[in-house]
Design brief:
Blueprint: E1 2-9, E2 13-19, E3 26-29, E4 37-40, E5 45-53, H1 55-58, E6 65-72, E7 78-90, E8 93-102, E9 112-122, E10 129-137, E11 143-145, E12 157-160, E13 163-166, H2 167-170, E14 180-185, E15 212-215, E16 226-233, E17 236-241, E18 248-251, E19 257-267, E20 270-271, E21 278-282, E22 288-294, E23 302-307, E24 315-322, E25 325-328, E26 334-337, E27 343-353, E28 357-358, E29 365-369, E30 384-389, E31 397-402, E32 407-414, E33 420-429, E34 433-438, E35 451-459, E36 462-471
Length: 473
C-alpha cells in the first residue's frame, strides 16, 4: 500500500487512509481466482482465450507499459501454449495482434504461470487491449476459468471455428472469466477490475459447439488477487480488512503516547511489504489555569480551581493531586481539600477521559499552609467583594473577596447584556479572605472580546455585591 496518512481526531482517535498498491503499475484482471474449473471440448482442438479491456477501464493506465501476462492452464492436455496481446479492437474483434510468445515449456499446470514480455507494450490512449493466449488442446479441459459470473462483454472471449465469441454464447451455462491478467508498469495508477461474486457450478456437458466444462481436483489456489489489508500499530497487527476497496481505518480512544503505524496488502495467501511508516502523538488536553490557595489560618482547607480543557469529549472527571497522590476526583472545576495538616504542598490536576485515559498534569502550584500563622489571625469582620486587580486587565485579573461566615459561594462573570460568561466559583467556602483568577475566557474556554464585564458575588443565593472590570487588549 502507498501514501499512508495518519491524523488525530477528537484528541485520541487515529484515522488512517492509504492508496491501493501501485507496485508495477496495476493489475488488469476480471477473474476471481482459479478454483478447479476449466473449459475444453474433451478432444483435440485449437482455440484462443482473451480478456477484453476497454478504453474507459484503461484511462488510468495509458502511457504505462504492459510488462507481464499471467495465466492459468488447468491440465497438461495441450501440445502448445502461446501468450498473445491484441491492440485496437472492439466488441467481437480483438484487433491487431501485437505480441505472441510460445510458453509451452514454461507452463506450471494448475498454478499461475507468469510470463514477462520480451518487449513491453506501451498502452496507447484510446485503444482497447485484449490479453490472453492460444492453446492447442489434445484432450480434456485445459483452459482455466474462475467461478463466474462473467464480466459482461469483457471477461471471456474465445476464438473458435474462425470467430470470436463470448463463453455464455458459445455454450449455455459457461458463465465464467478466463484466468488471465496483465501487469502494467510505469504508472502510479491502480485499477481493480476483479469480480467478487460468483455462481458455483459443478459440471457442464458438451454444448452444440462441442465445448464443455470440467472441474479439476486441486490442492491449493495460486492467485495474485488483492483480498484486503492488515493494519499494524507499534509493530503488532491490530486489524485485518477483507474488502480491498476499503482504504481507511479508525483506531479510536487511545491513551496519551506515541504510536507508529503501517499497512500491508494481502494477496490470497501472501502478504506484501509494509507501506510507509506514520508516527502520531496522542496528547490528552490537560486542565488550564490551575490554582491552589490555602484557606489558613482560619481554616485547614486548601481551595483548588481550574478551567476545563477546550477539547473535552468523553471527559468523565478530574484527578486532584497533592504531593503526587490523588486526593479528590471531582466532576466540576472546583475542589476543596479539607483538613490538610500544616505544611508545604504541591498541587496539580489532570483530566480523565472515558474513565481510563488520563491527561498530562496541569501546572504545579506550591502551597504554604499554616493554620497557626499570625499574618491574618482573625476572620474578616464583614463579607465583601473587594475588587479585582489589575483593572483594566489583559489577559488575567485577580478577584478578591472576604467571607465573615462560611457559606455556599457563587462568583460569576456577566457581559453588558446581562448574559453569564463564566462561573469562577460555585461551592462551599470557609470564612476567610479569598482570591480567584479570571483568564478572560468563557465557560467553553473561549477567549472573550475586549469590553466591560461585571462580576457578581452571591452567598447562599443572596447577592452581596456586583463590580465592574474592563478587558482591554
Amino acid at each position: 500500500p502507498e501514501n499512508l496518512l495518519a491524523s488525530v481526531n477528537n484528541y485520541n482517535d487515529v484515522e488512517l487512509t492509504w492508496e491501493q498498491p501501485s507496485g508495477t503499475g496495476g493489475t488488469l484482471s476480471y477473474h476471481t481466482g482459479y478454483n478447479g474449473y476449466a473449459i475444453g471440448t474433451g478432444s483435440a482442438v485449437d482455440f484462443e482465450c482473451a480478456a477484453r479491456f476497454t478504453s474507459d477501464e484503461l484511462e488510468e493506465f495509458y502511457g504505462g507499459n504492459l510488462t507481464k501476462v499471467n495465466i492459468v492452464i488447468a491440465s497438461s492436455d495441450y501440445s502448445s501454449v502461446a501468450i498473445k496481446v491484441w491492440e485496437g479492437g472492439s466488441y467481437g474483434d480483438a484487433g491487431v495482434e501485437v505480441y505472441t510468445q510460445d510458453i509451452t515449456s514454461d507452463v506450471v499446470v494448475g498454478e499461475v504461470t507468469e510470463h514477462v514480455l520480451s518487449s513491453p507494450i506501451t498502452l496507447d490512449s484510446g485503444n482497447e487491449y485484449w490479453i490472453g493466449y492460444s492453446i492447442s488442446a489434445t484432450a480434456d479441459h485445459p483452459a482455466a476459468v474462475d467461478d463466474g459470473p462473467m464480466v459482461p462483454e469483457k471477461g471471456a472471449w474465445m476464438y473458435l471455428s474462425g470467430a470470436w465469441g463470448l463463453l455464455p454464447n458459445l455454450g449455455s451455462g459457461l458463465d465464467y472469466n478466463w484466468c488471465v491478467e496483465g501487469i502494467v508498469s510505469g504508472k502510479d495508477a491502480t485499477l481493480s477490475l476483479t469480480q467478487s461474486s460468483y455462481i458455483p457450478v459443478d459440471y457442464h456437458s458438451k454444448t452444440d459447439t462441442g465445448l464443455e466444462m470440467k472441474v479439476h481436483s486441486i490442492n491449493s489456489t495460486s492467485t495474485r488477487a488483492l483480498t484486503g489489508y492488515k493494519i499494524y500499530r507499534n509493530g503488532s497487527e491490530i486489524a485485518e480488512l477483507t474488502d480491498p476497496s476499503v482504504l481507511e481505518y479508525s483506531d479510536p480512544s487511545l491513551d496519551a503516547s506515541t504510536y507508529e503505524y503501517y499497512v500491508t496488502a494481502i494477496y490470497e495467501t501472501d502478504e506484501s511489504g509494509a507501506s510507509n511508516m506514520e508516527t502520531v502523538e496522542i496528547t490528552l488536553p490537560e486542565p488550564a489555569n490551575f490554582n491552589a490557595v490555602s484557606q489558613a489560618p482560619t481554616s485547614s482547607n486548601i481551595l483548588c480551581t481550574w478551567d476545563a480543557p477546550e477539547r473535552n469529549r468523553a471527559l468523565t472527571h478530574y484527578n486532584v493531586y497533592r504531593d503526587g497522590e490523588v486526593v479528590g476526583t471531582p466532576t466540576n472545576t472546583v475542589y476543596l481539600d479539607s483538613e490538610v495538616p500544616d505544611g508545604t504542598y504541591e498541587y496539580y490536576v489532570t483530566a480523565v477521559y472515558s474513565d481510563t485515559y488520563e491527561s498530562e498534569p496541569s501546572v504545579v502550584i506550591e502551597v504554604e499552609h499554616s493554620t497557626s500563622s499570625n499574618d491574618n489571625p482573625t476572620v474578616p469582620a464583614v463579607t465583601e467583594l473587594k475588587g479585582n486587580y489589575p483593572n483594566p486587565f489583559n489577559p488575567t485579573t485577580q478577584i478578591k473577596f472576604a467571607l465573615a461566615e462560611p457559606g455556599k459561594v457563587s462568583l460569576e462573570i456577566f457581559n453588558v447584556k446581562g448574559e453569564k460568561v463564566k462561573t469562577l466559583v460555585n461551592g462551599n467556602l470557609e470564612a476567610t479572605n479569598h482570591s480567584v483568577v479570571w483568564n478572560g475566557k468563557d465557560d467553553k474556554n473561549k477567549q472573550v472580546s475586549s469590553g466591560i464585564y461585571y462580576y457578581r458575588l452571591q452567598i447562599d443565593g443572596k447577592t452581596e455585591a456586583v463590580k465592574k472590570c474592563i478587558l482591554l487588549k
